[in-house]
Amino acid sequence: MQIIDLRSDTVTRPSKAMKAAMMDAPLGDDVFNEDPTVQALQEMAADMFGMDAALFCPSGTMTNQIAVKVHTKPIDEIILHKDAHIYKYETGGWALHSGVSVKLLDGPLGQLSPEDVEANIQPDFDWLPRTRLVSVENTVNRGGGSIYTLENMKAIAEVCKSHGLRYHLDGARLFNAIAESDYGPKELGSTFDSISICMSKGLGAPIGSLLLGSNDFIKEARRVRKVFGGGMRQVGIIAAACKYALQNNTERVLEDHERARKLGAVLNDLPYIDEVLPTATNILIFKLNSTIKGHTFIEQIDRHGIKAIEFGPQWVRFVTHLDFTDEMLNKTINILQSIKSE
Ligand SMILES: Cc1ncc(COP(=O)(O)O)c(C=O)c1O
After folding, report:
1. Best mutation site among 201, 285, 319 for ligand 1, i.e. most ligand atoms within 8 A of its Cβ?
2. Can you give the pTM of this predicted structure?
3. Using 50, 70 and 90 to split pLDDT, how confident is the model at 342?
């Protein structure tokens, strides 16, 4: 049976051309800063975003957690949306690695507003934690892949600047946002103190994330990466896949968005679905009504080879990606239309 894996855009396999790029990559020991492929990737990304420097890391969790550590001191506080990946899905690393607390805000589709951020900065009393960092996510995973406007990101940047706060972007799926927006990497580079971007999601590389920032920030980040156990040796073999992804796969994410929109339109018409979050990019989040239980739905589609994850009681997430074809889309639509509620 053909498996259609919609659990995440992390499930893609490297293409033949990507593997060929990996095989041909010049290598060296990156802990000694001697891997030419890693250096080329880091320079390419930093140039693209108009930032000083970049650091290649094994995962987006690591780039986010390094950013939190470098920007804060223990007993500081960071402002996050209550659905932020850094808060929900990084095993509470902010508490362990950085000794900070979190101030969780709400907002539609997982997004913060500058007004809310400003209203939640702690006053300067010694019995309160000191607000030090604001982090936003773009696109927003739990917001159905929603996209921040440049105006909103810049307005939050202004609040950060006027209160002496650092500003981080969790851009795990940043190229999905860029492909649909009127802003480019350079505008983002000039808005944030640090940016994390995953190569292993929409861009289709097997492993790897990049952290971008000033020279001083990246120098410190390199030290923190080492203490996290993320110093890697001949890792150009993987950086080559990421370089290939940056050069070839950033614009093709639009195809994933198109397929997600088609699927979203079908979901909206199904009798067992209550609500579908607006489909902005490649993430579809929808709520089943009381005629079918979440786990029953997941089991039923699994029997037809479709894999998806429950995203809360009665909520389900589908993510489209590089290995999800038009043929799979049509098959998925047929299966969804054949599902019987209880
Ligand atoms: C928004 C967001 N940030 C960060 C990450 C972490 O990436 P990784 O799985 O590479 O640690 C993810 C992973 O799904 C994510 O969705």
Report:
1. 201
2. 0.97
3. low
